[in-house]
Design a protein that fits this description.
2 domains; globular; Immunoglobulin-like; 4 helices; disordered N terminus; nine-stranded antiparallel sheet
Length: 206
C-alpha cells in the first residue's frame, strides 16, 4: 500500500515537472543562431540596394548597401545606410526607409508587400519604420538604432528594405495613407536582408 502511494506521488511529481518544463520551454530565451556563436555573440546582416525594376520614368535610380548589427539576444539593432543616386541639389531632401513584409523582388519593389507590422499598429510604430534620412550631395550616409530585431519569430532577416520617393509624414496627417506608410510615395529601391559575415560591417567602419 505504501509502495502504491509512493508510486502515485511520484507520478504526480513527474506530471508537474513535465508541465514546468513545457512552461519553461515556452518562455525560454530565443535560440542563438550559429553565426552568433561564431561572432562572439553578435549577429550581422546586410542587403544590397538596387533600383526597383518597375521604377517610373524620371525617378532617381538609387544604389547602395544597408548593414545591420545586433548583440544577442536583446541588444539594440544598429543600422548603417550607404545609398547614392539621388539628384544633387542645393537643398537637401529627406527620404524614408522602411522594412516591408515580403522578401519578394519578382515585381521589383512592388512585390515586397506592405510595411512589416507584426503588432498591427499604425505607422510610424512599426518596428521597421526607420524614419527620414537627409540626402547630401546625392547620397545618404547615416546610422540609426532601430526597434527591429534579427532574432526570433519577428526577425527582419528575409524581409525587404525599401527606400521611398517622398518624405515620411510620420503619421501626422492622419489619413489612411499616413497611418499605413506615412504617404511616402513610390518605392525607389529595395533589397532583401540576409545574414552576413562581420567583415563587411568592419570594413565600412574603418
Amino acid at each position: 500500500m505504501r509502495l502504491y502511494g509512493s508510486m502515485s506521488q511520484l507520478g504526480a511529481v513527474l506530471i508537474v515537472l513535465a508541465g514546468c518544463l513545457q512552461c519553461a520551454s515556452a518562455h525560454s530565451d530565443i535560440e542563438a543562431p550559429p553565426e552568433v556563436l561564431e561572432n562572439s555573440g553578435v549577429q550581422y546582416a546586410a542587403c544590397k540596394l538596387r533600383p526597383s525594376s518597375t521604377l517610373a520614368e524620371g525617378l532617381p535610380k538609387v544604389y547602395g548597401q544597408v548593414l545591420f548589427k545586433q548583440d544577442y539576444p536583446n541588444g539594440k539593432l544598429k543600422v548603417f545606410l550607404q545609398i547614392s543616386g539621388f539628384p544633387i541639389v542645393h537643398i537637401s531632401k529627406l527620404r524614408p526607409v522602411h522594412i516591408h513584409q515580403h522578401g519578394d523582388l519578382s515585381q521589383g519593389c512592388s512585390s515586397t508587400g506592405s510595411h512589416f507590422n507584426p503588432h498591427g499598429v499604425p505607422h510610424p510604430h512599426h518596428p521597421g519604420d526607420f524614419g527620414n534620412f537627409e540626402t547630401q550631395r546625392g547620397e545618404i550616409n547615416a546610422k540609426v538604432q532601430a526597434n527591429a530585431t534579427l532574432f526570433g519569430g519577428l526577425s527582419i532577416i528575409g524581409r525587404a528594405l525599401v527606400i521611398h520617393e517622398k518624405q515620411d509624414d510620420m503619421g501626422q496627417v492622419g489619413d489612411i495613407g499616413s497611418l499605413l506608410n506615412g504617404n511616402a510615395g513610390q518605392r525607389l529601391g529595395c533589397c532583401v536582408i540576409g545574414i552576413s559575415s562581420p567583415s563587411i560591417w568592419n570594413m565600412s567602419h574603418n
